[in-house]
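Hey, I'm writing a tutorial for new members on how sequence and structure tokens pair up, and I'd like a real worked example in the thread rather than a made-up one. If someone can provide the structure for the chain below, I'll link this post from the tutorial.
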Amino acid sequence: MAAPKRGRRASGAQGRPWRALGLILVITAGLIVGMFASGHKTPRLGIDLAGGTSITLEAQNQPGKPNAINKTNMETAVGIIERRVNGLGVTESEVQTQGDRHIIVNIPKGTNSKQAREQVGTTAQLAFRPVLTLAQAEKPQKQKPNPGKSGSAGKQGGQDGKGKQDDKSKSGQDEKAEPSSSPSASPSADGQGRAVTEGLTAKNAAKTDKSPTPQPSDPGGKKKTPPPTVPPQQPQAPGVPAALAKQLTALDCSTKEARAKASEKAANTKGSEPIVACDAKDPIKYALGPVAVQGKNVSKAKAVFAQERGQWIVQMSFNDKGSDQFGAITDKLRKKPQPQNQFAIALDGEVQSAPTVNQRLTNNAEISGSFTQESAEDLGNILSYGALPLTFEESDVTTVTAALGSDQLQAGLIAGAIGLALVVVYLVAYYRGLSLIAILSLIVSAILTYTIMTLLGPAMSFALNLPAVCGAIVAIGITADSFIVYFERIRDEVREGRTLRPAVERAWPRARRTILVSDFVSFLAAAVLFIVSVGKVQGFAFTLGLTTALDVVVVFFFTKPVMTLLARRRFFADGHPWSGLDPKRLGARPPLRRGRRTVSTDPKEV
């Protein structure tokens, strides 16, 4: 009674290979359909293969903040930079930390790399500070001015050294005057408290406004608001400490390098202390009071084209705290005389605009000036996503052309094809018919790897870089090794004198343990490498781990079931010389045969 039961169990076991094959075929088909449905038919390529720009930013130590460079601030900076870059319309950027103080930003081709570099490198520490006083900054001259003309050190706003007005200078300024970002403004007519910077710069202070902008208190635009005048180079004013006035006198804003040095010093000054700062566009320098509203209280900023003025502006709105603070400072400033009724909008220690306030403002403000569409959008993007908690400098910028990336991709594919061809040649030469199973398994593994990598691109921004290609090439050997382990276990059983079908089933448990241990070690190594490494090395580790996991899936759900099915074929079961399982070539023990059946002395088979 026992023998028939064994036969029925064996018969049931022989039907199981189809279940495993059906499962993996369904999974493979589902991944392929998902790949085509996603609209992505190829894996997303990294910078080194597709071309693009790679920027390395290094965090700088900040005065008075010895522990500012920490994991929390670095992660915060990564998130802000990523949102800034994506705000440019780049959806395939890659931002990640490298070590303790570096951030790597990879931007694919097709993106304005110059614009992106400005976005990621700008700290964007925004602050609203009251203006204590301002002065004309020395503007560098391309040629030596003629004696007696305006613009000399002893003249301010078209006045000569004796304080008399120079009509020629005034007339010349009328012809060349241009509106810019500071220092005068007025509230908008919508009554919502929107500061509008439409003033004239110091270099045009003597100009008479020929076409004034209508104000809420002057609907017809008949009453002219005189532009602010920049005081002579004597910045001592009521409420200005003598030390601050001395700093303002000594402040150099004449060159780009000097302005950069001044803005860096101002940006690193505590918000509770007054500063001196240069104007971002015009030859004006300011003495500013402590921060009244911090940039982090700006809830939203966007670039808008003001039709009535024909210029680009940046509109801002505040959160509840910022709105209260902004209302308090504008209510205080509106009661003061010029220029102390102005507030400066300082970005990274440089004054972007300094509008005049003549009524209490609460929720909205706007920055105007010599903006292009691109610069306005950049500033709005930066302000929307907040300031970086750290100051960064570019330590390396690498640009990879599309042609170079294509060459590297081609070289990687050629290397992979050579490696695969060598493995196939070895399998065919040594395992003959069994090599068919190995090749089919490699094909299934390649399909699964390709579709998963393609789907991971839009799902988790996975990019296939050159190290990842190397990981896939190494995985060919790992996958082939699993087949070899199983085939050798089967051959060992055949050498013991067993027929193929029992040999396939008996070899599997021992081969399975070896395969699992081997793949576990490889996967563990890949996981550790992924955790401790940064940058492109992580691509190698990720691909190696993925293909190792897929190796287990393919061996269990494809290789073993196919081997079980082929063991029933006479070509393999009878040990054909080209099957790779010829008992004579394997040196098998002479079995006792009764027809085609081999009688084994193993008690488990009796």
